[in-house]
Every structure is written in C-alpha cells, then in structure tokens.
Amino acid sequence: MKFSTAFLLLATTTTITGFTLPAATTHRHTTKLSVSQSSKTSNKDLAKDFDETSPEDVTPSSSGAQVGQAEVVLVGCGAPNRGMGWYHAVQMLEGRCPSASLDYIIEPWFLGGGAEGPGGPEFKEWADDSTGKYGTVFGTSVGDLPEPKQPRCALISGRTADNPRLFKECIDAKCSTVILEKPGAPTVAELQLMKDQAEEAGVGVLMGYNKNVCKYVRKTREFAETIPGSHVTFVSNNAYENTPESLGECFERNAEGMLKNMAIHELALLVSFYDVSVENIESVEADKEFSSMQTLPGPSGKEFTDFDKIKFTIKTKTGKEVSVAADRCGGTDSYATVTDTDGEEVFRYWMPDDEDKIAVEKLQAKYPTAMPYFFTQDPDYVTVKERVAKHTVTGEEAEGVATIGVAVETLRVAEYLTPLLMEQLK
User: Fold this and answer.
1) What is the rounded distance in angstroms from the CA atom of residue 4 to the CA atom of residue 179?
2) By C-alpha distance, which of 393, 414, 410, 394 is closest to 402?
3) What are the tens digits of pLDDT across the range 234-292?
4) Which residues lie closer than 8 Å to 236 by C-beta, 6 or more apart?
5) Distance between CA atoms of 32 and 54, rounded to whole angstroms?
6) Is residue 417 helix, strand or coil?
C-alpha cells in the first residue's frame, strides 16, 4: 500500500490495516444521537436507530463518521480543479452533505505512477492540506480499507474503464451503497454484470445523474404538463475552447463518446421521465444544421471521432416526443425549453437561475481555476450525495436519484443512438 506523503507531515499517527490515520485536529460532523453503531454496517440494521436523524442535527467531531452518518469512500479523485471526484470531495469536506463523512480518498494515479507528472504536485499539496484540516485518509487501494465503523458508501468517480473492477472491490470492502458516476461502465454488458453483482451482495447502487434532481428539469416538466401537445428540449453545454487541441483532448479523455459522457445526463432524463427505451424508440432524427461531428487527434496522437455538438429528436411508440441538444463549446449554462403545438417557445428555464447565479459567482471567486460546470451544477451534486448518504444510513428512499436499472437502460439507449446519429451526419 502506498500512502500520500501528507501522513509524514503529522506528528502523531495511528495505523489500522494499512491506512495511516492522522491524529491532528479534524473537522467532521456528528449527530447529537449517542447510540453506538460501531458493529453495524447494513441499512436494515441501522434504519431503526436513525428514523429521526436529520442533516441539521450535526456538531463537529474529530473521529470520522458518527452515528447518523455514512462513512464515505471516494474512489478516483482526479486532479484538483479538474476532476469531478475532487469537487465531490470538496463539497463533503466542507460539510455541505451533513449525512456524509468523507473518511477515505482512494487515488491510485496521483499517489502512484502520476505523483511526479502533470497534476501530481498539485494533488500532493491539496492532499496535505486536506489531511491537516479534516483528517482525511488517503490511499491507493480499496482493498486496504479497514472494517467500516458506520454504514459505508463508496462514490466511484474514476475512469469509466476502471469502474467494473473498482465496483467489485467496493462490494468486497463491505460498502452497503455505491454511487456510480456516469455512465457507470464502458458497455451495457459490463453494467448489467455490475447490477447483478450488487443484487447478489445486497448492495444498493445509485447513479450520479444529478440532472434528475435539478430545479430546471422539475420546473420545465411541471410547466409542460400545463400545455397540451407541448414539446420539451433539454440543452446541455460545456465550456471547452472551440479548437482542435481543446476538443481533441476532450475526445481522448472522454473516449466513450459524447452520448455516453456529456449527454448521458439528458438520456437518463428521457429514460426516467419520457418512456424512452431501445424497444420503445420509434424514430430518432438528427438536426443536421445544429450538429457537428469531427475526427481529431488527442494528446497521445491517436485520432478520435465524436460529436462536438449534437441535437436530435426522439419519438416513442407510446406517442411521446422529446429533444436533446448538447454542445461541448456552448458555454457554462444548461437549460430546457417548452414549445407549443405551433412550435413557438413558451417557456425556458436556465441552470443556474438568477438565484443560483449568486452562489456560482461566490464559488468562481473561491475556486477561480476550477471547471466552470462544477459551479452551475453545484447544488444538485450536493442533493444527490446527501440523499444517497442518508439512504445508506436510514434505508429511506433517495428520492429522485436514478438507480442502476435506469443507468443500464440509459447506456443501452446511448449505444443504440450513437451509430444511428453518426450515420445521419456523414
């Protein structure tokens, strides 16, 4: 087991099963309940003791997850200011998800082979700081985790290709719940196997499809229901530079392709709320005027073909119709529109809205070099983690959060649509 050098900077440490636990002053959260739960790890065992637990019932602690909290293991952190895992960590370490105590961060690359490469020194600096402030334990292997002291939840936010292996390791490490970042696995077959493994082990699996709980999605759906025959379009934007170098790096880093990566959130909405499934798709039509597909070299020199922007409309056999647009270089905001039967736009709701933009500006000032889309989706990331963490402890439903069953169908739809849309754009 290799450790972050953060541990070497602390005066006193305690070692448990290969992990070095800092004895520095830490800032955790604990409920006001006093029932000991050190021997319980399953949702069923814990639910009866935590029915009254509230995220507001928290006070500082220095000993990791407490009664009423999930012991969270972040698997795959990534580089500070760039990795989605890093931003998940920041939100939990800052106490914004009261039911979640981020006790362990597993980062094999920046604590291993990538320690001296690009991003390595920055990661070490952040890891040292996190250990000193919060007592965070860093490691390189899920297999070296000690026994859980509270119900354990893994948040897997590494490379998609590594997810099947990491997922099995998390099950073996006695995680009672797993949060999988999009799309969950490289292929439908692998994700279905993971679903089967979880069911056999009695492990709950929920997805980081944060747009399922977004305000703008809810507001749009509610408005559309008031307009007979209305049509909804979900629009997703990223803020990559519109250059071959920037898009080539994006294509290589997200080699699974746009529909399995950026636009997978919108596909999850279609599966969750619009009866979209492979079997129920009657037709799909690309908007050729909007859409663009390119073949570009990535940093490795290898070429990748993907959409830099795509818009399409799906009609289902059950009579529903919905559109999706995604643009890698479209900016930082996402939104949804409702048009009436004449094609006139009658409603548009942005993410972030005016209220949320105030929070976005504060976050941009606090983390000026971070990826802009972290901030526009910030409250939704918090919502997903808090609901899943509370589910891990109490067993109550994580309302609105997509299940791995939704993820399997979403990935099936992505695999089905990609070649069809590429053919239409040739």
Assistant:
1) 24
2) 410
3) 999 999 999 999 999 999 999 999 999 999 999 999 999 999 999 999 999 999 999 99
4) 262, 263, 265, 266, 324, 325, 326, 327, 330, 334
5) 10
6) helix
Q: Alpha-carbon distance 349 to 310, whole Å?
A: 20
Provide DSSP, 324-373.
EEEETTS-S-EEEEEE-TTS-EEEEEEES-HHHHHHHHHHHHHSTTS-HH
For 367-392, give one letter per residue: b (16+ CB within 10 A) or e: beebbebbbbbbbbbbbbbbbbbbbb
Is residue 28 predicted with pLDDT exceeding 70? no
- Give 341-353 pLDDT, tens digit per residue: 999 999 999 988 8
Q: How many residues would you count in the chain?
A: 426
Q: How far apart are CA 69 and CA 54, in angstroms?
A: 10
Peptide bond into 352 cis (omega under 30): yes
Region of 340 please: left (phi>0), alpha (psi -120 to 50) or beta: beta
- pTM score > 0.85 for this model? no
Question: If you ran DSSP here, which 8-state letter would residue 13 be given?
Answer: E
SS3 112: coil
Structure tokens that stand for 213 in this block: 């709980």
CB atoms within 10 A of CB 51: 9
Across 148-165, average pLDDT = 96
Whether residue 311 contacts residue 291, with contact meaning beta carbons closer than 8 Å, is answered with yes
